[in-house]
Amino acid sequence: GIQVEQSPPDLILQEGANSTLRCNFSDSVNNLQWFHQNPWGQLINLFYIPSGTKQNGRLSATTVATERYSLLYISSSQTTDSGVYFCAVGAPGGATNKLIFGTGTLLAAQP
Amino acid sequence: DAGVIQSPRHEVTEMGQEVTLRCKPISGHNSLFWYRQTMMRGLELLIYFNNNVPIDDSGMPEDRFSAKMPNASFSTLKIQPSEPRDSAVYFCASSSGYSPLHFGNGTRLTVT
Question: Fewer Cβ in 10 A, N or C end of chain B?
Fold first, then answer.
């Protein structure tokens, strides 16, 4: 099956700093989504981005499907950005949201 | 919309007991997914339904696990009998077509 690797595994940021999270996947995908799991355990969908670039406020994401990676950018980090960021992909031919999750990047944004 | 609604939020039970987790998907969504999250295995798909029909249950760990979706607005995941290794957070999620996946708040299950 498809392997999903995320880096870095852990990240500590000062408030106001920028960061880039990376997701590499081992095979072609038809779906890629980024999620944030907050300290209360809620999983929030950030981006549905099988290809191209999207922006939502301080967050943006870029997926280069031909090179099998995606990047999540967080600008001007805030303490509320803390939590785990997951990348998840779907294999071609499978259901749209039959997703394989990476192991996540644990982000701690400190005041 | 209220989002995906799961109940209960927490469940503590003794080994051997039956456990039933419940999920109400977002209205209008035709796909429903059950995921499990553990420290060891991360987030893994157990089963998914499309238009109330189970499509892929290859992630269901054992015959002790079963899931149903009797109508478009309700699904259950049942574990009978439960074992300590079933302790995890169980998430229900829903989507429609080529749309983002939306998760419920999860049920934290502890089997003692």
Answer: N
What distance lies between CA A84 and its chain's CA centroid? Answer: 9
What residues of chain B, 74 to 93, have a C-beta less than 8 Å from chain A?
Answer: 89, 91, 93
From first CA to last CA, the distance across chain B in angstroms is: 36
| B interface test, pick of A97, A98, A99 with most B CB neighbours within 10 Å | A97
Kindly tell me the sign of the dihedral angle through the C-alpha atoms of B30, B88, B45, A22: positive
Banded model confidence at residue B1, pLDDT cuts 50, 70, 90:
low
Identify the H or E element spanning A59: strand A59-64
Tokens of A22: 């990376």
pLDDT above 80 for A43: yes
Run of H or E including A68: none
Total number of residues shown for chain B: 112
State pLDDT tens for residues B74-102.
999 999 999 999 999 999 999 998 789 99
CB A110 within 8 A of CB A14: yes
- A47 contacts in chain B (CB < 8 Å): 100
Min Cα–Cα distance to chain B from A110, Å? 24
Give the chain A residue whose CA is nearest to the CA of B100: A48
**B32 contacts B69 by C-beta, under 8 angstroms:** yes
Task: Return the SS3 of B22.
Answer: strand
